[in-house]
Every structure is written in C-alpha cells, then in structure tokens.
Amino acid sequence: FFENNKHNYRIAYASGNTEAQKAANRIKTEIQNITGRTISVVAAAATNSYTASSSMILIGFNNALGDLGYPIPDAYDVNGDNTKDIGLYVVRGIGKAIFISTNHETSYVPAALDFLNAMFGYEYFGIDSSTYKVDNPKKIDLVPLSIVNTPACLYRKLDAYDSPTITGFDGGELGYNEGF
Fold first, then answer.
1. Rounded to an integer, what distance in angstroms lies between the CA atom of residue 161 and that of residue 169?
2. Please, which of 10, 82, 151, 161 could form a disulfide with 87 given CB 3.0 to 4.6 Å?
3. Residues 6 or more apart from 82 whose CB is under 8 A from it?
C-alpha cells in the first residue's frame, strides 16, 4: 500500500456522489496525517469497470463490486413494508482493489472510518482527536479486508409484540427506542 516513501494506490469516488467524495477526502486527509504523504483523489463515472488488479480505493462503485461477485447485501426489512434500513456498508479487498460500498449515501463516511481502523488502527475521538497504530509509516502493507456492517435494527421494536411469552414489557422503560 505504501512503500519506499510512495503510495502505490489512489482513491476514486463515484462522480456526483458528494458523500462518497467526503469519504474519499477523509481517507486522503488521514492517510496524509499518518504517512506524511498525499494520495491522489479522482472522480470517476460510476459505470467505470474495475478489476481485482486495480491498485485503488474505490468508493461508491457498487456495480463493480457486484460484477466481481460481491453484491451489496440487503439491509433488514424491519417494518415488513419492504423498506430497507440505512447504514449498511461493505469494505472489501479483492486482489489489489479496495471497495467501499453502501446502501445509502450517509454510510460512506462511517465506512471510511472502518477502513481506516482496519488498515491503520485509526480511532476517532472527536475534532482534532484521533490516534492510529502503524509501526512504520514508510511501509504499510495491505491487510485483508472483508467488513460488512449490517445494522442490527430489530432493537427498535422491543416490546410484547416481538415475544408473545413476555407480557407487559415496555422496551421504552429500559431506554430502548421502540421505533414507533
């Protein structure tokens, strides 16, 4: 990923997707903070085709990930009305390519933070407060990446309707958001 004081990678985000662009810029900034070197960021058409030999971090190219046999899984249909919950994202390394894909625009930055954590031990605590764990910032190897974050949203309706054996239980009393 980073060798001989040079990045072997660049970042591409789906053109026109402002949230994917924010994620790309966040990754660029943090990689620069960690290594002291810049990494290029480019906008590309979402229909571009990428292969496992692409030395790139690809943000928002869901179709390309699916074409390689890794489609974005569906999020839980919590309400039974065929609506998908937001928050699902995939960070997957396939060959040299790193894909960051989501089922909703708002998930790109959290996915980028998970990528940074997996690659660099990055932890974000607040504005101007973050840490990372890299032994040698001049030589960083690509780690295996297979992160699928599917929101566990069933807690939103935790009441007697979910379990007929529990009567009179109100999840709201315990601080749960019942989703009503």
1. 9
2. 151
3. none
